[in-house]
Model the fold of this input.
Amino acid sequence: MSNVNEVIAQFQEVVNQPGDHVKKYIAKTGNKAIGYFYYAPQELIHAAGMLPVGIWGGNIEPSSVRSYLPSFYCGILQTAFEMGMKGLYDCLDGMIIPNLCDSLRASSQNWKVAVPQVEFISLVPPVNRKTEAGVKFLLSEYENIKNTLERISGNKITDQALNNSIKVFNTYRQTMREFTKVARNYPDIITPSIRNAVIKSASFMDKVQYTALVEELIQGLKTLPVKDWDGKKVVVTGIKMDSPALLKILEENNVAVVADDLAQESRLFRSDILQTSANPLENLARYWSTMEGCSLLFDPEKKRCDMIIEDVKETGADGVLFCMTKFCDPEEFDYPIFKKRLDAANIPHVFIETDLETETDEQARTRIQAFTEMAAL
Done:
């Protein structure tokens, strides 16, 4: 158990001081770092010899950003811009901002003016991503990003380097899928806060080092006895559930997260990049067409609903927690469909709206308490 605690402590240290960890990595390796919002070709950044850094906002009060973004934009963008304007991202040499929603689309150009010291790198993913035309369009976008990353890093991104990076990230994805399955057997150890810390820290660490540490945690957990869990189990869905206050509320009410469908977590490693072409950049572009179950991706069949219902059945969860990021239009559009499908399947669920600006949420506490009582009936 001591080894497990020591490994967990390393993940917690990273998420408690992510900026310091990234700066230490840069100082130690001499490599540069590139930030990215939501989904981006991390493999290209890695193949250029740089560190991909996930940007998901943070707990900070927006003030300066009001000059650039309206107050009804989601907290992820509001706080990320605020952090950038305060110089917290100055250690990054570039920022990839994909046009995945109206807010990202409208704010991407503002980055050039609001945070000029961190170079803006455009990414316009195709809406019709499953067509050959969509794949070709994204391939051209990745070519442009590749050229930009080569200029910033001073390194040529060869096919060999990109193939190696794809293998590194596929190994990471496979390891993370194993972790989420093993972790659900140890809810007394892998609490919602610890689960969040383990998965979130991948955004700030070298993937090889990170994957090795997760593998060490998995092996450590497997040596421990599996205990009966007398609390409730939930599957979480949404963009992110990165609120310390909300995670603490779940723990106080004896609620374990046994699976997730979060953009910041499992959606990043749900599937591998397939080696179907001799051109690794094309394989990277085709990966975008295979991703499923996200409100930010064109999905007329709403496969996300079926995927979550299947997770509930597989894990034996007592219900679903829909974690809504405040002012997130794509998620708000999905929720009525989501609710209807869950009700039809007789699966209890609770709707929680999160705001990065709020450190405490008594409304969430009341809803989760009510949910645990309802799930017990």
